[in-house]
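User: My instructor asked us to take a sequence, write out its structure as tokens, and then describe one feature of it. I'm not sure where to start. Here is the sequence I was given:
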Amino acid sequence: MRTNHEIDYFIHGEEMQCVEIELDPQETVIAESGSFMYMDDGIQMETIFGDGSTQNNGGFFNKILGAGKRLLTGESLFMTAFTHTGYGKAKVAFASPYPGKIIPLDLFRLGGKIICQKDAFLCAAKGASVGIEFQRKLGTGLFGGEGFIMQKIEGDGMAFCHAGGHIMHRTLRPGETLRVDTGCIVAYTQTIDYDIQFVGGIKNTLFGGEGVFFATLRGPGEVWLQTLPISRLASRVLSYGSPGGRKEEGGILGSFGNLIDGDGF
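Assistant: Let's start with the prediction itself. The structure tokens for your sequence are:
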């Protein structure tokens, strides 16, 4: 039996997506600050400490503690709750912050818990708990790309995450291992064993350009991967905008540089 609010949804768009949530009277959805797009008349918006889940109902101190944990994942102290206070059905929509996809996650079907990258959470049905997940392995915390602290979403309702580029969903059998670039991991179920592995080889390490470590994901469980981590996109943009980056100046030297790079004149 589900304890979280049951919500209907529809995802619009391709590269710049938004999720439209349909609420019945007195149903509530929680969302990250800044993700709101639009809402129908009859929906009331309220800023709350933490995620408003039942885990934070033990008093003011517990609410402060739960909200404070969110700071460790790079999120705001506050979240926003949208409640349908009118009659019939009403809709509220939330948009992803950068080009990519929105991933719908049925926590009831996925074992009640999802572990994801620190900025992946977008919104969820009220009752879901958004907290922190510590990496217990030293190597994973130091070299796993996400550090010792990741985000976890617990509950039995619908939750939505966002990620960059296209999303690949893999179901791993018991003992099946997938080696992944550390920045490409979006989310995985709690049954997945997450570790890191040294790439190996002097040439691979010094000149491979793919980092020194792989992330290894061992089944059973489900994994979601992204083709364009926002850190990779930001790094490429900064490299072109830096003084040492290539500039399209149109002169002889600029054209010669383009020719060397393989772009032609």
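For the description part of your assignment, you could build on this observation: The chain has one domain: 8-230. Try explaining in your own words what that tells you about the chain.
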